[in-house]
Amino acid sequence: MSIISYPGSPFPLGATWDGNGVNFALYAHNATGVELCLFDSMEAQQESAIIKMRERSYEVWHAYIPELKPGQLYGYRVNGPFEPLEGHRFNRNKLLIDPYAKAISGTINWHDSLYGYNFGHKDEDLSFNEKDSAPYIPKSVVVDPHFDWEGDKAPKIPYYKSIIYEAHVKGFTQLHPEIPEEIRGKYAAIGHPVTIKYLQEMGITAIELLPVHHFINDWTLQDKGLTNYWGYNTIGFFAPDVRYSSSGTLGQQVNEFKAMVKELHKAGIEVILDVVYNHTGEGNEKGPTLSFKGIDNASYYRLMEEDKRYYMDYTGTGNTLNANMPSVLRLIMDSLRYWILEMHIDGFRFDLASALARELHDVDRLSAFFDIIYQDPVISQVKLIAEPWDVGDGGYQVGNFPPGWSEWNGKYRDCMRDFWRGEESMLAEFANRFTGSSDLYMDDYRRPTASINFITAHDGFTLHDLVSYNEKHNLANGEDNNDGDDHNRSWNCGVEGPTEDQWIIDLRNRQKRNFLVTLFLSQGVPMLVAGDEMSRTQQGNNNAYCQDNEISWVDWAGADKELMEFSRKLIHLRKNHPVFRRRRWFQGQPIKGLGLEDIAWFTPNGQEMSGENWDEDHSKSLGIYLNGRGVHTLGPKGEVIIDDSFYVIFNAYHDSLIFQLPPEKYGAQWIVVIDTFRNLADDQGTLYNAGDSFHVEGRSVLVLKNHVHGTQMDNDE
């Protein structure tokens, strides 16, 4: 096949169709030659044309091919030294995925030709594999970037109004009976009216999707009949994964993803992506050669300084992307900008974000990664959420990310789990976490919304399992139950796993409600895991990363409708009352003209807590007064925000206690709006007067609202 080739341009990187042809550009600093390979079909065993890219500018190889169109399949073969001891693993026999591919045509068909070395060779990864990998690797796809967004606008929901819902594209919709079967588990299902209606009714403002960047399903998992379900194994940072496409594999997946985002935006729901820029799916020196490793291994990955044959591994996956290199930083920033500008994404949650911040071995909060994002006019304006840890030394960095970032607050999760399972000495930390974790975020001028509060996440027990299991039950993963965290801070309420004991069932249900109330009434940004509001179980599996089946999928048919309704009312209570979603820190000082604090803490006997009360190890119960006139912020038109006042009683003690309401100056009459013991979540509860005493059941939460309304000027909406 005769192909005309022009010099083309080094930028933009990737394959860019301009209506007349396609420009190809590939960064490969240490390469000695690059060949562009074109394929006629996904089934083709070998390329139909090979174009030697003779132009090289700024360490970028480039060529322009006229008359090529969207849907064209391609890959690269890259020449250079095969010197693993020096960090170079070039091998022309390996067809490579374009790091900037906007779409990838399929999934890997595992074969030993995908590895740069020979299995079983005495020299292991120092040996050289001459087998052609082209028949077994998915091809990159040229895409048409045009899409009718119909005037789509980002919802731009401020953090303090956000309710984040962490979900898996497939797992959330795969079993939904009202979604057409042909699109279940696909992008189209997330954008389906049934899904959107559910999210709206629940009060969700942002859906945070587990990784959708094209990822690798490990050969070892495939051999066990398992799969990399979560997707934390990226190979294409620009390409929406083809497995979630119901419309096609030659670029149609891009438009289906865009259509999903457009429909969610129409409903006022933001889309946040869980992104994995800390490593790739190529693993360590024993891993396959699929893209970066064969294009320029020494540039893309962090290698051991003393022996470049081996990789620095701060991620637990075998490799770490080298975000210290300008070319890798550019890749990450280009990817982020692409998802914002072209795919209309509203924010990102960065997996193992500490790994991106490492300068040499240490985590440096002022690394180039953060500096570049801080000054970027596009990326700095969306939601940036860090998972503030990695697996290396010093990698636990909760509270240490710079202004502009929010963080998954692991200390919030641990504290609230310990509080409700009855650990000692929890009151002081509980108070700190409940009010937004000022000890972590206030000193660098961040707000309470820097704290992304969560009780559970995709990694670990579901909410139902958190109150049903003391131990992990991961045998289905095929690792003899050795995988997953051993320290879950869970409590099974007396019996491990399923039980018919109604007393334990009632206690577990109450504990679930306790956790949910704590989460949604805490200052900060709440994150709920899909299915927790309906008692989804993973049967005690706390590491279901490889379970693409009913263990991980949301069971809509078996949903706990009572808990769903309780959760819905609870979320709307938060949304309707700015006192639960403050933009500024509590000051704990009298409000001018009232003589009352914006927040006050009480012992069960109705007395304000003193210093010694916080130090009592056995104390597991308290009352919290939230002053509706102490919100301290103005509405969008400069109006003073005034809300109802609330009195929240937490009783984590195992037995009922007598609580006395505070004096009349805090409120003359109070009505119960939430009672986790009685499964109540509305304003039809009992009415109490100031100073009244009453029993509060063990392990329960009571939320009371001041029954006498002031001039309520919120609505802050």
Descriptive account of the structure:
- This is Glycogen debranching protein.
- InterPro entries: GH (IPR017853), GH13_cat_dom (IPR006047), GlgX_Isoamylase_N_E_set (IPR044505), Glyco_hydro_13_N (IPR004193), Glyco_hydro_b (IPR013780), Glycogen_debranch_GlgX (IPR011837), Ig-like_fold (IPR013783), Ig_E-set (IPR014756).
- Belongs to the glycosyl hydrolase 13 family.
- It comes from Rufibacter radiotolerans.
- GO terms for molecular function: amylo-alpha-1,6-glucosidase activity.
- There is one protein chain.
- The chain has 717 residues and is an alpha+beta fold.
- It has two domains: 386 residues, TIM Barrel (Alpha-Beta Barrel), CATH 3.20.20; 121 residues, Sandwich (Immunoglobulin-like), CATH 2.60.40.
- The strands form eight sheets. An eight-stranded parallel barrel has the order 12-13-16-17-20-21-22-23. Strands 24, 25, 26, 28, 29, 30 and 32 form a seven-stranded antiparallel β-sheet that branches. It has a five-stranded antiparallel β-sheet with strand order 4-3-7-11-10, with no helix packed on it.
- About 1% of the residues have low confidence.
- The chain contains 15 helices and 32 strands.
- 20% of the residues lie in helices and 19% in strands.
- Helix 13 packs parallel to helix 14.
